[in-house]
Amino acid sequence: MKQLFAIVFVGALFLGISQSASAQLSDEEYNYVTMDLRGILNLTMTTNPQVDFSFKTIAEYQQGITRFNATQLEVDATLAWDLFVYANTDNWTQVEAYSTNGNAALPAEILELRSSVDNSASPSDFLAGFESLKGLTNSGVAAGVPAAATQFLAGGVGTGLAPNSFAPGTAAGNPTTHRFRIDMRMVPDIPATFPNSTVAMAGPDYAQAGYYYLEVVYSLVEDL
């Protein structure tokens, strides 16, 4: 009888412990975690934004002036992107005239650009060699939106992978595709007719001596 009592007692004790364990109290708290991934497009000009051309000698008029690495640009992006360039007006703006002879309406296209980055696979226009920069109307850009005729330094019109866009990345990690060195050139000739230009001057066929400026726009956008 003592042995039976011991077995019953041990069984009851185990059942009590088991019931106590299954009835253990608990409490919980929760975190509500969110993530906001913002698309980043950073275009940085690492050179002086003003590029000067001063033609003071016959040789400079005849041979022209080239500014190598006149503009350097860096792109840092977390998404696919395009980069295009155009003149903000159709003509240069004359600030001061040095003569009463000649034509002050100089087309934007007398400025020639060349890019260090190969965008030749793009179906859009590009600047692999020295080429006339397109004025606002000829560029096809309207309200900041480019067209097939726009000059693209990277990518082109048409959403999708290469060659219509360049991949996300940083300039530091991708120097051959996200770093741009832009050479600039102008050749006035004598008289100053700028024979390399793709747009002829209207009116008198040579430029008036004077001080002029042109605004060049580099636009970095999410893949179009």
Structure overview:
The structure is a single chain. The strands form three sheets. Strands 1-2-8-5-6 form a five-stranded antiparallel sheet. Strands 7-3-10 form a three-stranded antiparallel sheet, with no helix packed on it. The chain has a two-stranded antiparallel sheet with strand order 4-9. It starts with a helix and ends with a strand. The protein has about 220 residues and is α+β, with helices and mostly antiparallel strands. The chain is elongated. The chain contains four helices and ten strands.
Strands of the widest sheet, in order across it, are 1-2-8-5-6
Computed CA radius of gyration, to the nearest angstrom? 34 Å
Mean pLDDT: 90
Q: CA-to-CA gap between the ends? A: 92 Å
Number of helical segments with 4 or more residues = 4
What characterizes the major β-sheet? 5 strands, antiparallel
What is the number of strand segments?
10
Strand content: 25-35%
C-alpha geometry: elongated
Helix-strand topology string: HEHEEEEEHEHEEE
List low-pLDDT spans: 1-15
* Percent helix: 10-25%
**Alpha-beta classification:** alpha+beta
SSE arrangement:
Layout: H1 2-22, E1 41-45, H2 58-63, E2 65-77, E3 81-87, E4 93-97, E5 112-115, E6 131-132, H3 136-139, E7 151-154, H4 175-178, E8 179-186, E9 210-213, E10 216-222
Antiparallel strand pairs: 1-2, 2-8, 3-7, 3-10, 4-9, 5-6, 5-8
For the structure shown, list the relevant keywords.
single chain, 224 residues, alpha+beta, five-stranded antiparallel β-sheet, three-stranded antiparallel β-sheet, 4 helices, 26% strand, elongated
